[in-house]
């Protein structure tokens, strides 16, 4: 058998079909790439970005607390010694902040010793909430005052400062820090309401026209996670004010079982 009978000619080699990219193969690769990018964006928006923003917010809050600690302590407010010997300070009256203006920090030991989130005026997203801060409603009283100190914050996205609100336990401390000192509230209960249930912001939540002389705190956030269908509401009652001159209150003591984030 000759070489010409067993070896393909140059023309035969040239006639072999080439592998070419078809329209559908290119389209499939583009769709696959787009799907991966969308998944990465969703992961960033719902988890990774939140973790980064939350860590940055806590770090900035801790820096604010350190700065306040280095300032000269203002004189303590008037004090009253109760029958059991406990000294009770009349909480300083703070001015209501303008929209987007930070004036305090929120500390919640159940959320970890590093939890330190700014509190600012207003509940608009561009000026306050989307910065990862907790916002004070326009009709709210200020911390420590008779009535309802009411606030809102994101539960998902933008640093999710109130992500773990559903994991608060009875008597957990919720502390508001200002240059003057610390306002301690104690958690009582949760409630789920529709978005139009504005009665939770009344001076006595859910009781129109009532006047008890008590001092409440109300925290609101969207519920369930990744939904606007309802609002989760956390109620707390005021325990007392600790002047900065006396150092941090015992209510800031670490807890053994720190709540983990909800995904």
UniProtKB/TrEMBL annotation:
<dbReference type="Pfam" id="PF04203">
    <property type="entry name" value="Sortase"/>
</dbReference>
<dbReference type="InterPro" id="IPR005754">
    <property type="entry name" value="Sortase"/>
</dbReference>
<keyword id="KW-1133">Transmembrane helix</keyword>
<feature type="active site" description="Acyl-thioester intermediate">
    <location>
        <position position="222"/>
    </location>
</feature>
<keyword id="KW-0378">Hydrolase</keyword>
<dbReference type="InterPro" id="IPR023365">
    <property type="entry name" value="Sortase_dom-sf"/>
</dbReference>
<feature type="transmembrane region" description="Helical">
    <location>
        <begin position="21"/>
        <end position="47"/>
    </location>
</feature>
<dbReference type="InterPro" id="IPR042003">
    <property type="entry name" value="Sortase_E"/>
</dbReference>
<keyword id="KW-0472">Membrane</keyword>
<feature type="active site" description="Proton donor/acceptor">
    <location>
        <position position="154"/>
    </location>
</feature>
<dbReference type="InterPro" id="IPR053465">
    <property type="entry name" value="Sortase_Class_E"/>
</dbReference>
<protein>
    <submittedName>
        <fullName>Sortase A</fullName>
        <ecNumber>3.4.22.70</ecNumber>
    </submittedName>
</protein>
<dbReference type="GO" id="GO:0016787">
    <property type="term" value="F:hydrolase activity"/>
</dbReference>
<keyword id="KW-0812">Transmembrane</keyword>
């Amino acid at each position: 058998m000759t070489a010409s009978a067993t070896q393909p000619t140059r023309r035969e080699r040239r006639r072999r079909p080439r592998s070419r990219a078809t329209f559908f193969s290119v389209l499939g690769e583009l769709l696959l790439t787009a799907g991966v990018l969308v998944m990465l964006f969703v992961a960033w928006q719902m988890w990774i970005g939140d973790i980064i923003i939350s860590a940055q917010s806590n770090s900035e809050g801790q820096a604010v607390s350190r700065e306040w600690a280095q300032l000269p302590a203002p004189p303590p407010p008037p004090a009253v010694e109760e029958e059991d010997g406990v000294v009770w300070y009349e909480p300083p009256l703070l001015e209501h902040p303008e929209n987007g203006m930070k004036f305090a920090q929120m500390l919640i030991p159940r959320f970890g010793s590093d939890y330190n989130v700014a509190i600012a005026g207003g509940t608009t997203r561009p000026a306050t909430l989307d910065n990862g801060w907790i916002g004070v409603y326009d009709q709210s009283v200020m911390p420590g005052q008779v009535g309802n100190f009411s606030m809102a914050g994101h539960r998902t996205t933008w640093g999710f400062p109130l992500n773990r609100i559903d994991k608060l336990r009875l008597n957990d401390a919720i502390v508001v820090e200002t240059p003057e000192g610390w306002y301690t509230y104690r958690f009582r209960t949760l409630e789920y309401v529709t978005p139009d249930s504005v009665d939770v912001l009344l001076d006595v939540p859910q009781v129109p026209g009532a006047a008890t002389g008590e001092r409440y705190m109300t925290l609101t956030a969207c519920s369930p996670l990744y939904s606007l269908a309802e609002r989760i509401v956390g109620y707390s009652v005021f325990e007392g004010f600790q002047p900065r001159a006396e150092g941090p209150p015992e209510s800031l003591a670490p807890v053994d079982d720190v709540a983990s984030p909800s995904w």
